[in-house]
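Task: sequence in, structure out. Protein: 7-dehydrocholesterol reductase.
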Amino acid sequence: MVHADGSVAQTWNYLKQHGLQGFIDIWPRPTAIAWKIIFVYGAFEAALQLLLPGKRVEGPISPTGNRPVYKANGMAAYFVTLVSYISLWWFEIFNPTVVYDHLGEIYSALIFGSLIFCVFLYIKGHVAPSSTDSGSSGNFIIDFYWGMELYPRIGKNFDIKVFTNCRFGMMSWAVLAVTYCIKQYELNGKVSDSMLVNTTLMLVYVTKFFWWEAGYWNTMDIAHDRAGFYICWGCLVWVPSVYTSPGMYLVNHPVNLGMQ
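Result:
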């Protein structure tokens, strides 16, 4: 999709014409800078998740009688992330267009890195589960796809699903929306009204999510779905790539909506 500026239709037409070889030709290879961007972003969000203060929130009682405890600091992490990101650009410390220029490599690295992460979750669920809300179905495919643990954690306080679903996946939605605005501004000297509408709508949605994050911890994603491939890979790869694709497309294809 990066090859087609985020257009699903253009990507589909290209693949119909060129087939598997065309897919191989345009597949970006992960690079050192892509891994560095992912690592720095992930480490920053993990640090905010652990270090920022927040209200103690209890989740619903699990099927085995456990009640997970969280620290509700998502809105603070969201604010710190966006202010830090925009400030780095404003004071010319880091140019977010670097992220856009290496998007394909970043997504490629996320695809493979997230797959390895899911293998880690599968092994952890077998050898070091965080609670009694875990176990095998007896089928490797189901265990890997659905997950081994309901509430996997590293240590006592670092909740893996909060990180993958909220602090990495949903946060990246907002960060990339801002990135596309900055890239279009640097290309054209202005931001189109269509990009402003797209970015505003995305930020309103993500802001609402983090305002309500403690409520999200009571939903099916957290309280029922285990931490496996389909939810973790989806949040680490699908959300930042597909959900942000309208902004990616608008970078090079601005639309003038006007006042009518």
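The chain has a mean pLDDT of 95.
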